[in-house]
Amino acid sequence: MPSDPLIRLEHVDKTYRIAETPTAVLRDVSLEIGAGEFVALQGPSGSGKSTLLHIIGLLDRPTAGRYLLRGRDVSGLSDDELSGLRNQSIGFVFQSFYLIPYATALDNVLLPGLYSPAPQHQLRQRAEHLLAQVGLADRMRHKPSQLSGGQQQRVALARAMLNDPDLILADEPTGQLDSKTSAEIMSLFAEVNANGKTIIVVTHDEETASHAKRRVLVQDGTIA
Ligand code: ADP
Ligand code: MG
Questions:
Q1: Above pLDDT 70, what percent of the chain?
Q2: Which residue among 17, 30, 42, 156 is buried most deeply as judged by most CB within 10 Å?
Q3: Which ligand has the minimum distance to the alpha carbon of residue 220?
């Protein structure tokens, strides 16, 4: 029997109520993503990409339809259960990096370890290893303001990997970077994918999407 896909969305709708008027942002989205894939969710601004990524990342819930993560329907889980599952199995990377400005690169990477049962010295070793892996072995004590945009995004990627998640979700990760730096960051995502992580990148940018192994087009709340 074939195993369950990592992600399975079945007829997902998302509707926001704005001044009493329901507005459909996602309509009948069905999508499967297998473990080990590197997928770009590509589409114009306002098409619903971030909304879709937030649902996949357990940051938001569908209005209708089902979401199965590793074959498990997550709709019945409480908010606490969802955040537990999220901490342990999903890493996030955002357009604006969201690093803590007064903390060093190393301390930023250690942040998701706050609730980890792993001993502190082990987490620290892992954070150092991850920073080396993203090419920042000599920048661990730098603060975000002492790093370039590309370096800050590398820190954010290392942070996303601290708890060793199966799945890494990135929302417009190259949105603040020049084209050369964007290509470097996307190559790094490809490397992380080659090491076994499932990666989903949201982007409106053709060049960024071209680095993924599979593209899913999002248009006006639906997928092609
Ligand atoms: P994208 O990431 O593709 O630019 P989004 O998923 O952010 O698109 O948004 C899709 C649509 O949903 C937009 O029209 C946006 O205004 C609307 N939208 C997103 N979040 C909310 C919200 N919390 N409340 C109301 N409308 C929202
Ligand atoms: Mg968006």
A1: 99
A2: 156
A3: 1
Euclidean distance between CA atoms 76 and 82, whole angstroms:
10
Classify strands 222-223 and 214-219 as parallel, antiparallel or unpaired.
antiparallel
Q: Whose C-alpha lies nearest to ligand 1, atom 21?
A: 16
Other Cβ atoms closer than 10 A to 125: 12
Distance CA 213, CA 123 (A): 31
Q: Please tell me the residue having the least CA distance from ligand 1 atom 16.
A: 46
> Element (H or E) spanning 188, and its range?
helix 179-194
CA dihedral 81, 86, 88, 92 (to 10 degrees): -170
Nearest CA to ligand 1 atom 5: 48
Q: Where in the chain are the domains?
A: 36-61+82-223
Size of the chain in residues: 224
Query: For residue 42, which ligand has an atom nearest its CA?
Result: 1
pLDDT value, residue 224: 83
Lowest mean pLDDT among 43-52, 81-90, 143-152, 212-221: 81-90
Pocket lining: 18 vs ligand 1, CB cutoff 6 Å: yes
Q: Is the CB of 65 under 6 A from ligand 1?
A: no
